[in-house]
Amino acid sequence: IRKPIAPRELAAKLESMVEVVGESDESPVGDSLPVDARDRVDLILALVAASQPPRHKPNVEVLDDGVFVTVTATLDEDDPALHADLLQICSDVRCLDRGGKPVLEARFFLDGRRAESDLSVDPSEDWPAGDAPIAVDFGRGDPCPPARAAEILHMASNASSLGRLVYFTNLPGHLRLYLEVFGNAAAMPIRGLAGPALPEALAELWR
Question: How far is residue 149's CA from residue 174's CA, in Å, rounded to a whole number?
């Protein structure tokens, strides 16, 4: 947005960043988010919906600011079990109070990284030397050919045997199927907890 900022232009920009689910059962997430972010949002929404009484349809907001995705859900009542479940999906989950209503807020990296310090590479790039964790982001760069995906899986398996964490983000469904059918499915890096991780002292405040 260029300055000076017109109020109408600012409102339109903010509205484009937020999607809301009210009475509709449809997911607010179309194809606008990367694969992993879309899957995490859909899983969070499913867990939230399953945790609430049938009469209550949680009001949900999904915000994509270009770095983080934030899912905010207004609940009928506080649910510690739901909070614990969401902490298995992303590290930053907060329980808030807004107008006497419990609100859960889950935030994670748009690109699916586990930590900000993890090295993110596209499938065609050489991997940096060292032992820092590597996130191979299949949503970056040109589409990855199946044979290259199999090669990367082999490289990840070798790196893992040497103690280096390598994981995949935004792996398209057809490549996942290819690796399951033609590759070593047992070596497939699982999608784990998405960052950012909160400092322990701060995390305790939201539990």
Answer: 11
Domain segments of the chain as ranges:
7-112, 119-187
Find, among 39, 97, 49, 93, the residue nearest to 71 by Cα: 93
CA 171 to CA 139: how far, in whole Å? Answer: 7
Residue 149, token pair as written in the block: 């995906």
- What is the layout of strands, in order, in the sheet containing 59-64? 18-21, 59-64, 68-74, 101-109, 92-98
Q: What is the pLDDT along the chain (207 residues), one digit of tens a residue?
A: 555 555 555 555 545 554 444 444 454 566 789 999 999 999 999 999 998 887 777 789 999 999 999 999 998 888 889 999 999 999 999 989 888 889 999 999 999 999 999 999 999 999 999 999 999 999 999 999 999 999 999 999 999 999 999 999 999 999 999 999 987 778 888 888 998 876 665 555 444
Calculate ∠ Cα 148-152-157, nearest 5°.
150
Q: Cα–Cα distance between 66 and 52 in angstroms, integer?
A: 30
Q: Which of 40, 49, 45 is nearest to 27 (CA)?
A: 45
